[in-house]
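Let us practice reading a record.
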Amino acid sequence: MRRPTAGTAAVIAGAFLLAGCGSDGKAELSVASAYIPQPVSDTMAAGFLTVVNKGGAKDELTSVTSAVAGSVTLHETVGSSMEEVTSLAVPAHGQLVFKSGGNHLMFEKLKRKPVQGETVDVELHFAESGPLKVEIPVESAVYSPKTGH
């Protein structure tokens, strides 16, 4: 029996590597740990969630829409200042985390004030992937998730 040469072994190894990456060349997005604290204001609310990417390609969250608000904006917290941004990166095999004191969603010009116990429908829009529809539960104003997010 002939032994494979180093070149043949490299070709076989490369083929296996490529075969394993077939579904890895795109983002695989889902949402976890989503909640909205019951807003104190009649006009604004904050939203928190984690966008999970199990895929091998990065993506960007470019916008969020919801019928409950006139607009939903993305905010990034750097140091002690908050600023509105047009997109946020979702790394390959990583997460984009929105949490109290960090990145967050701002529901502005509320059409009605969400109350604890209900859910708010939102749609997340990405640069490459299709939109994700999410039902975000409204929690108490002082809710602190077990995940820390």
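A brief commentary: The two ends are 59 Å apart (CA to CA).
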